Amino acid sequence: MSQALILVMMEEGQIFDTARMREWLTTRRSVVPVPSIEVHHAILVQ
Predict the structure, then answer these.
(1) How far apart are CA 40 and CA 43, in angstroms?
(2) In 3-state terms, what secondary structure has residue 29?
(3) Domain count, the chain
(4) Whether this model's pTM surpasses 0.85
(5) DSSP 8-state code for residue 30
(6) What distance lies between CA 31 and its chain's CA centroid?
(7) When comparing pLDDT for 15 and 26, which is higher?
(8) CA distance 14 to 32
(9) DSSP state, residue 44
(10) Alpha helices, DSSP H only, in the chain?
(11) Which residue has better confidence, 41 or 29?
């Protein structure tokens, strides 16, 4: 995860949806060998 994503989540009081992000990573790995989670990819839950 990018540092920017972690900071945005902390600032906004967000929690990380691990199950949904793992699902996204599995899908993404079929497109690129090492997916990178950036702010615009994040699944944020309030």
Answers:
(1) 9
(2) helix
(3) 1
(4) no
(5) T
(6) 16
(7) 26
(8) 27
(9) E
(10) 3-12, 18-29
(11) 29
Q: Which amino acid is at 42?
A: A
Q: Coil, helix or strand for 20?
A: helix
Helix (H) or strand (E) holding 45: strand 44-45
Instruction: Record the tokens describing residue 16, joined without a space.
Output: 């990380």
SS3 24: helix
Q: What is the pLDDT of residues 18-37, one digit of tens each?
A: 787 788 888 888 888 887 77
Under the banding of pLDDT at 50, 70 and 90, the label for residue 44 is low
* 42 φ/ψ angles, rounded to the nearest 5 degrees: -65, 145
Tokens of 13: 């009081």
In single-letter form, the type of residue at position 38 comes to E
Q: Is the pLDDT of residue 3 over 60?
A: yes
Contact between 23 and 33 (Cβ < 8 Å): no
